[in-house]
Amino acid sequence: MKLTGIAAAPGYAWGHAFLLEQAKEVERIQLRPEKSTEEVARFTAAVEQAVSQLKELQERTRATMGLDYAEIFESHIMVLKDEEFVGRAKELIVGQLINAEAALSDVTQELVQFFESMDNVYMNERAADFRDISKRLHGLLTGSEQLSLCDLDGPVVLIAHDLTPSDSAQLERERVAGFAANIGGSMSHSAIMARSMEIPAVVGLKNATSSLNNGDFVILDGVKGELLINPTAEQVSAYRKAKETYERQREESKAYLYAPSVTADGKIVELAANIGNPADAVHARNNGAEGIGLFRTELLFMGRRNWPTEEEQFYAYKLAAEAFGGMSPIVIRTLDIGGDKELDYAKRPRERNPFLGYRAIRLSLDERDRFKAQLRAILRASAFGNVKIMFPMIATLQELRAAKALLAEAKADLDAIGVNYRHRMEVGIMIEVPAAALISDQLAKEADFFSIGTNDLVQFTMAADRTNEKLSHLTDPIHPAVLRLIRLVIDNGHKEGKWVSLCGEMAGDLAAIPIMLGLGLDRFSMNAGAVLPARIALSAITAAQTKEMAEAALRMESSDEVRDYVHAIMPHLRELFQIRR
Ligand code: PEP
Ligand code: MG
User: Fold this and answer.
1) Protein residues whose CB sits closer than 6 Å to any atom of ligand 1
2) Residue of 66 and 116 predicted with greater confidence
3) Separation of alpha carbons 512 and 443, rounded Å
4) Rounded to an integer, what distance in angstroms lies between the CA atom of residue 133 and that of residue 77?
5) Whose Cα sits closest to atom 6 in ligand 1?
6) Domains and their CATH numbers in the chain
7) How many other β-carbons are positioned within 10 Å of the β-carbon of residue 359?
8) pLDDT by residue (tens digit) across 524-533?
9) What is the pTM of this model?
10) How many Å lie between the centroid of ligand 1 and the Cα of residue 454?
11) How remote is the CA of residue 428 from the centroid of ligand 2, in Å?
């Protein structure tokens, strides 16, 4: 049996399935009235114990994974201090004279149903928080050992409805060969954690937990996003081959870790990584990235209950800058909220077309104080590395000017209190709106650099929602229409002496790399796992060859034609494709 989901972290794993969440029947006991005070006290003691466990976990996570992961536990602690959850359970114990476990189960069910029924993925994710907290409390109340992933007799393939933050904090590469979840997308907590720990993972499988039994033999394909349950001998041998090739290529690619990113005829480019938190920066550096080409700061704002302070942000940006240190560029993008990225605490009205909505820089320019706090945090971090700032979703010159004016105010705030920052910090913009590409000649006069965001540029150019799987034939960034816009942006940037980067997923797409290079792109920023394959691909081509390829691609009639053409010229790319993401 084969289940298909979303490839969340690359690689292959096989072994016996370990079902993390086995629904247990909660014992329901009717209390005598005089027992309720005792029961409330038992519940309160469990809550206090949970808080101290969470504080310990928070400390451990802060040290190993960085501030934003630790923040998840802070939000759990807040829930345990909040009457909405704890008070309601106590009310049920006293009002309905039921035991603490039953009251806990009822409150959890109420809240989980409430959050899951909301038409907002981020609210839906809060349901997972309540399940996690409830599981911990239930373990403490019943004295049953919390399942410790550290004690797993692995390696196993972990199968869960979702992997909670506390579960993730206990994962160990030696014991967990792979991880599969019923829910989640490539941006869910579990996917982010799996990628940063390099544990192959597939999420969004819908019914993995109900399709297999503990101990079933499974194969997890984190490249295609599949889970095979009790596979045939032929399937096992095919996957063994794929895994061997994958691992051999990864081993071989390590020879390129400290090599320069250079074509066969000596053209040097920069291969940087996209990150969402400081821990990713360390991972990126260890995977050969030459800097950070895109720090998606909104990920620091997500998975929590309130806005991060300037201080918290400063700490995260500084950590990322320090992970590279010295001259390596660290491009920090200001908040890009909206589209498919919402903050549950921001309470924004629903929009008909969120991707075309009130988002990113449009929002920041109105939320001046919050925006300036972020700008000050980035400026302060610039004293610790080669930090550059980048504004998302710029569509007009006026937006760029307004953002720069606020940056000047943020600098004045710091000057007034004598705080040090990089005075000549470069200020760039994302080119993701076709309007910005079309006026890139004007924008190039006022921005220090461009970074082309093809994930959005493609969806706006092709009028095809990037999250709609039915439109995937329209959202291949290698389409000549998009390539023509990219060429325009690069040419206009270069005419003003500005460097041009590309940080959409396309940057790590091996078939697209020769074309982008041929169009004159200076820098690439991609997911960390794609850096070494990209460096290998570069070493096998000449700049002259890529120029010819780009010219030909611009004249082609479809993205398929461009892909077939690149593969025909560079057949070895197909092999390397396995380790593309
Ligand atoms: C892009 O649009 O290409 C991009 C890099 O930004 P994001 O994916 O965060 O929208
Ligand atoms: Mg974008």
Assistant:
1) 294, 296, 336, 432, 453-456, 503-504
2) 116
3) 25
4) 9
5) 453
6) 2-21+148-234 (3.50.30.10), 33-142 (1.10.274.10), 262-578 (3.20.20.60)
7) 21
8) 999 888 899 8
9) 0.72
10) 7
11) 14
